[in-house]
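Please describe our next protein:
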Amino acid sequence: MGGERPASALELRAGLRRLYSCRATVIAPEVGLSSKVNKREQRRAERKRSSLIWNVIVLGTLGVALVLIAIYIVVTQRPGALPNETVVPDEGKAVIADNAPLPVYRTNPPSSGTHYDTPAPWGSAAAPVSPGNYLNNLARGGVVFLYRCDEQCAERRQQLEAIYAKAPKESQFNTVKILISPHDGLTSPVLALAWGHEMKMQTADEGALLTWYRRFVNYGPSNGP
């Protein structure tokens, strides 16, 4: 009887090769497609991470800037007028040679007006400071605390010196711009002066005087150290 001839070994091997080749052809695109998808997802994830990092940096920088601005506003904001504060008419700011004759001021003690070229050293003065000198301190943006030297002279001086020790250095010149001086003829035990302003006080009130300092430091018409 006639029948099909059994396949030879060579034919079997050739058939297996063709089958393997077809399978590889089918699998290869699937592997390549999967690899492309993975790379695309990896790039997408990297972009997300990069975007997140930049968002954190930008928001962090913005937050720090806002905090610094808030601190600056709090530090530099001047307090408002104090209850006993008085505005004194301005008597000018002319500068004359040291020891030259001073004019007769309309206000005694004056808080503005013609003054010497040299200020008094900041801090506590043992002897009364001439208006010609302390007005220069006021013009430079400092404040002056005058006190009456009676039976409580030493106590007032110590209280005012303690306030000076607690006062912060101002930011422009890194200096505590306060001058303390005894003064004859005061109508109140303590008189706080700033350029064109005064405040009569019965005691050396620490809170009020430190507020006065913060309110008027660097306020003068010829601001300087």
